[in-house]
Write a structure and sequence with these properties.
Elements: H1 7-22, E1 34-38, E2 43-46, E3 54-60, E4 73-79, E5 88-94, E6 101-111, E7 117-127, E8 138-147
Antiparallel strand pairs: 1-2, 1-8, 2-3, 3-4, 4-5, 5-6, 6-7, 7-8
Keywords: Biotin, Disulfide bond, Glycoprotein, Secreted, Signal
Organism: Pelusios castaneus
InterPro entries: Avidin, Avidin-like_sf, Avidin/str, Avidin/Streptavidin-rel
Length: about 160
């Protein structure tokens, strides 16, 4: 007589098999920590991700609407701590060092078939404006980040940001 598993038991079994299939193969887990560069040349350093998923770091944009000198800015964020290994995340960059604007990024960290990590993001940039100009104060865009060559998770972070 064949015994059927309950849906709950089946789900637990599948989760266990999924976790076991990734054991010892860290390349399938996307890790935010490290140095990243996006498709327009902006650079980002994400420091250690804490146990609650929070993280901080530095962001150095390659593009700006201001005529002021571009300076690195602090980023503060959080990531999901899912078992899947390709977490969603979000972070805020306050450009107070050279601009009166703030950008929020949201995205997901992926590992491709080649084992390389990428961050697919969408952002909103809000400029400080008078109320009558509110309609045009928020810009929307996307960026793809790739890990900076030679920067692996275990290496100490460079301070070139």
């Amino acid at each position: 007589v064949e015994r059927q598993q309950s849906p709950v038991a089946l789900l637990k079994t599948n989760r266990f098999i999924y976790r076991m299939s990734f054991r010892g193969r860290k390349s399938h887990f996307c890790v935010l920590t490290g140095l990243w560069r996006n498709d327009v040349g902006s650079r980002m350093q994400i420091d250690r991700v804490n146990e609650d998923g929070s993280f901080s770091g530095k962001y150095h944009t390659a593009v700006s609407l201001t005529e002021n000198s571009i300076k690195p800015a602090t980023l503060i964020g959080s990531q999901q701590l899912s078992e899947g290994g390709q977490p969603t995340f979000g972070f805020t960059v306050n450009w107070k060092s050279f601009s009166e604007s703030t950008t929020v990024f949201t995205g997901q960290c992926y590992v491709g078939e080649n084992g390389k990590e990428i961050l697919q993001t969408m952002w909103l940039l809000r400029e400080k404006v008078d109320p009558q100009n509110n309609w045009g104060a928020t810009r929307v865009g996307t960026n793809i980040f790739t890990r900076t060559k030679g920067q692996n998770v275990g290496e100490s972070l460079r301070s070139d940001l």
